[in-house]
Each structure stands twice: as structure tokens, then as C-alpha cells.
Amino acid sequence: xxxxxxxxxxxxxxxxxxxxxxxxxxxxxxxxxxxxxxxxxxxxxxxxxxxxxxxxxxxxxxxxxxxxxxxxxxxxxxxxxxxxxxxxxxxxxxxxxxxxxxxxxxxxxxxxxxxxxxxxxxxxxxxxxxxxxxxxxxxxxxxxxxxxxxxxxxxxxxxxxxxxxxxxxxxxxxxxxxxxxxxxxxxxxxxxxxxxxxxxxxxxxxxxxxxxxxxxxxxxxxxxxxxxxxxxxxxxxxxxxxxxxxxxxxxxxxxxxxxxxxxxxxxxxxxxxxxxxxxxxxxxxxxxxxxxxxxxxxxxxxxxxxxxx
Length: 309
Fold this sequence. Notes:
Blueprint: H1 5-15, E1 18-23, E2 29-32, H2 52-74, H3 80-93, H4 101-106, H5 111-118, E3 123-124, E4 127-128, H6 130-145, E5 163-164, H7 170-182, H8 196-205, E6 213-214, H9 216-247, H10 256-264, H11 266-286, H12 288-295, H13 300-308
Parallel strand pairs: 5-6
Antiparallel strand pairs: 1-2, 3-4
Helix pairs in contact: 1-3, 2-3, 3-6, 9-10, 9-11, 12-13
């Protein structure tokens, strides 16, 4: 079987359809509906731009190559809407072959039993993620009822107001708005009245298409800013702790045991400083796009270079 046009549109609402290459939260170059080099159909690179039609063609190729054969194997005899639901699930999890809801579906066990097992696929990193909870519900509606999601259009579209182009719940939107405000982008906390100019400013600073739309590329880039801040904080604390051990300076709470030990082991001081330095350099390389964003205004050429490597 092949994924229907409605199935692909539902997939686009879940994954986003980004026509300019961007880094996913893990740092991999991505384009279209979440396609990386691992898809086998394209190798995204910095600055790459594709058309909407090219994105659809690549999605079709990825489905034909990676997903439709697997879903056909494990969901034989599926109706079109059931097949489309299986495709969305497998695109997200890559686990149609081991999902416990699939044998229940094959035995026609009933919607209630299938739904219980289907909803278990709502975790990331061992934690229940609200976004996955909501996605599973949308996929279930396709699977059980044949009802495909439709992104609600704003009642009064405005060029001055940013637009959400993914299926997100209030908690996810609030988290994004809070993070943007913390970074100095004054978007407020009303998800329906975010100034498009502030979103375009964030997008310009990060080498994204400045369209004022809050989609996958913008949210993935925002996540990298959040992750970079979280991972560089321990480096800063370790650096302060190492310096404090040699100078007797006051160090942040939680580092005293480490610094006391380092102070008692002179040989460890140099080693600790070296480890902190190497760790810091590795983080700087891993999040060079974040550094580029911070340099975008003061050193645009350097920022462009960092984004290109």
C-alpha cells in the first residue's frame, strides 16, 4: 500500500515541513518533514533550500524506501486510514514491528484494547511527554475513526502576529514562549498574540527562514539553545570550582566536596582544569550554531562561518 495524500498532510502537521535545512535538537542537519542523511533520500547541508513539491517528493521516496514496506508487512489488509495511522506511528517511533498494539489490531481485538497499548508509546528519555500523548490521540483517531487532523487557522490572520504551524498543546506552547522570553525575545505569554517581529528576529539570529511562523525548525533551534545552556552550566561551575580550590575563593553550593578533594591532591588540579577545558571545547563545537546566534549581530561573517561547518 501507499500513504494517501491525507496521510501525508497529517504527517506534515505532526513533523512540520521545513524547506530550509536546520539542525535538529541532536545537531543533525534536517530538511522537509524531518529528513536527515539517515533517510537515504537526501543529505541536508547548511544553506540547502528545497521547494514544497521537492519536499513532498522526498517524503514519498522516504516512505517508499523505509516505511511503507514495513507497515504493509505488519499491518496486512489494513484499510487506507489504518495504514496511514501506522505510517505516522512508524515515522515517529520506527517501531511498528514491535508495538504491542499491532497484534491486537490484527486480531480485531477492539478499539478499547488497542487504544490502551497504543497510548503506551508516549515517552521520551523515560518520561511521559505531553506532545507524544497528544500525537498518539490524533493517530488513534485516524486508526479507529478515520478522522484526520486539520490545523485550525487563526480567525483573523495577521502579518503582525506569529502563527503556530504544528499540532501543539497549551503546555508545549507555554514552554516555548517562556524559553523565548528568557532569551530576550519579547513574545509574551499569550499564544494567540505573539509578535511576528520577535519570532522573525529569533529566526534571523539563528539563520532560519524569517517567516514569523513557529514550526519545527524554530522549535528545534530553540531546544538547542535550551540544551546548550543546560550543558554549559556544569562546565562553568566546574571551572569556578577548580579556580576556587587553588585560590581559596568561595565556590557555588554543591561543589565543595569536589574542590576540597582537588585542593588536597595538587596533581589533580591541572588534570581537572584540562578536563574542564576539553569538555568546554567539545561543547563549543557541538553548539557552534548557538555561538553563531550570539555573534550574529556583532560578527555576522563569523556567525555565517560557524553555521557553515
